[in-house]
Amino acid sequence: MSEICKNIKACRVAANLTQEQVAEKIFTTRQAVSSYETGRTQPGIDVLQRLASALAVPPEVLLYGDAAKKRRVWFNKAAYITLAVYIGAVLISSALLWGLNQWMAFPSGTPVSSANRDMLNVRFALLRVQNGLQGLTLSVSAVAATILLCFDVSIQPRATLRGKAVYALVLVLGTAAAALPWSAFDPVYRFADYALMPFLGLAMFGLALAADLGITLVLEKRRRKNSIG
Asked: What are 87-121's pLDDT values in tens digits?
């Protein structure tokens, strides 16, 4: 028995419907519904859509099962949480750098004295924190990009191209909004100081998304070829 057949029967039982009741809803016979559930007949797309409507479940549940759908929902949440952590780290790092240059800036050649030594020490300590946050953005992007690629390739149902495009758009715009505006008002550092590290991380995400898109297109082409054959 195929997974689709198991899913049809499981959803019918969960909906507390008999085969006769389902047959009435999709305008077919009880024998046809029984044939779908035992695997003797594979339902077409139109029949699957009618079955999904009759059983009050998304078509994806019949295709992949409720557990697979839950895995996809979990993965999508994890992907956006990772995105939020990345953009949040970029935002905090950029804001900290801007604040240091706004209120703790020392012109080049400023001599160290007892009057400014403590503030210099604080500045250097906070710069180390800021550098650590920049390292975090690269680490998060590298690990997350690998996870996104590996998990999205293996999890069914696969994310849609539209969903991936939205994710990429949020990633680019969120990173730009978190990093770039600060450079316009920084009296010491410039655009490149704010943009370099975040956009290196962005490049890692971009490579993973591009690879995932390529794999998606290859799999879709193979699926269509098999369906024609």
From this structure: 888 899 899 989 888 887 776 666 777 777 788 78
DSSP the chain: --HHHHHHHHHHHHTT--HHHHHHHTTS-HHHHHHHHHTSS---HHHHHHHHHHHTS-HHHHHH-HHHHHHHHHHHHHHHHHHHHHHHHHHHHHHHHHHHHHHS---TTPPP-TTTHHHHHHHHHHHHHHHHHHHHHHHHHHHHHHHHHHHHHHSSSPPPHHHHHHHHHHHHHHHHHHHHHHHTT-SS--HHHHHHHHHHHHHHHHHHHHHHHHHHHHHHHHHHHHHH-
**Is there a single domain that holds both residue 98 and residue 56?**
no
Residues 110 and 150 in one domain: yes
CATH code, 42: 1.10.260.40
Average pLDDT over residues 154-166: 69
Boundary of a domain, candidates 43, 64, 85? 64
Same domain flag for 140 and 45 = no
Is residue 51 located within the same domain as residue 84? Answer: no
Residue 158's pLDDT is 64
**pLDDT tens digits, residue range 52-70?**
888 888 777 777 776 666 7
Tens digit of pLDDT for each residue in 183-219?
888 888 888 888 888 888 888 888 887 887 777 777 7
